[in-house]
Amino acid sequence: MLEISGIETFHGETQALFGPSLRVGEAEVVALLGPNGAGKTTTIRSVLGLSPPRAGQIRFDGTDITRMPTHRITRMGVGWVPDDRRVFPMLSGRRNLALGARRTRFRAWRQEEVCEIFPALDHLMVRDCEAMSGGELQMVAISRALLGSPGIVLFDEPSQGLAPKIVQDVLKTVRKMKAEGIASLIVEQNALAALEVSDRVYVMDRGRIVHEGDARELLDNAALRRRLIGM
Length: 231
Prior knowledge:
Elements lengths: L1 E7 L1 E2 L2 E2 L6 E3 L4 E5 L6 H9 L6 E6 L2 E2 L5 H7 L1 E4 L11 H8 L10 H7 L3 H4 L9 H14 L4 E5 L7 H16 L3 E5 L3 H7 L2 E6 L2 E7 H6 L1 H8 L2
Parallel strand pairs: 5-10, 5-11, 8-9, 9-10
Antiparallel strand pairs: 1-4, 1-6, 2-3, 6-7, 11-12
Helix pairs in contact: 3-6, 7-8
């Protein structure tokens, strides 16, 4: 579904990524872990075309998207749940969801379906987003990504600032997406939460991949976790 091969991405003249390669299969959940500044968010921005790599290749669903504009990438079926939600604060939940709705070759979702995943959305449809809590905004952001008919969703710190109950709702949504055939790439500081729902894991440090393996193995191996990510 997604294949990143040896990309090199810069912020101005400062190189942030030094050739990481990773893949996400169809309906697979992959965690991307590492310390702050490791290059995880830059990897997501590279996929989305927000920080285009100067070298290497990114393929989605068999198509080279390395230097495509962002709007074309999302219309192909790449969903995004950013760490700061990026909703329109002066618009209602319903309007924000409507702005994200599109059709791709992947499974189409309806508003009624995302309300089944997040029952509280029923009451948020008429409320302006500026009056919502962090957890409520995250429900809107994830639902907006689903209404874009994605083949893969890129999550950037989905548990950031959320209560434990909401974090569990987010993890439940990732499992639901997997069951529906949607792949996920999860960048997350809460490594245990990410590993709990992931099939495989990559660990980054200083713009490079330093570990690739089975997520369950890393979840069960505390010594390896401490060595790789300090947990």
